[in-house]
Amino acid sequence: MVSYLYDNLVELRYFSDLTGEIHGEGSGLSDMAIDSLVMARSPSGFDPRLLFQELSIPGLWLFGSEDSSVAVAKSKVVLDSLVTRYNRRYSYVISPEVEHLGFVMQWPFDMAPGFSDELTGWIIHQTGS
Questions:
Q1: Following DSSP, what letter does each residue of 26-85 receive, concatenated?
Q2: Is the dihedral of CA 32, 34, 37, 43 positive or negative?
Q3: Which of 114, 105, 102, 35 is nearest to 73 (CA)?
Q4: Per residue in 7-44, pLDDT tens?
Q5: pTM of this structure
Q6: What is the mean pLDDT of residues 94-123?
Q7: CB distance 57 to 95 below 8 Å
Q8: All structural domains of the chain with their residue ranges
Q9: What pLDDT does residue 5 have?
Q10: What's the gap between Cα 48 and its chain centre?
Q11: Looking at residue 108, what DSSP letter applies?
């Protein structure tokens, strides 16, 4: 478990350093260049894809297009491959102008429009109630 947490932090830290999330001083690279670097990088240790390909439960990922903590483009590719290759019930939503915690990136900060509805609708669909 400790190894998993460390490896996960290494991945998050790499992306955050490129985007400047932690210290506000990013790499100066474009979003496209950052995505290319992240896509080319192999997992540093623990690869969650191995776990996700074994799970039989549905999963929903709610991403924001302005997330500087998580590599959304790479996450999308990984999830798409799991759905296609292993027929998993994984889905995701990428909300425009939204950051990591689901807040819109303009004042006044508020939850992304449709965020609660998307989550509620998904839960109702999965549970049938």
A1: -----HHHHHHHHHHSPPSS--HHHHHTT--S-EEEEEETT-SSS-HHHHHHHHHHHHHH
A2: negative
A3: 35
A4: 456 676 777 788 887 666 777 888 888 888 887 887 66
A5: 0.65
A6: 83
A7: no
A8: 2-127
A9: 45
A10: 13
A11: S
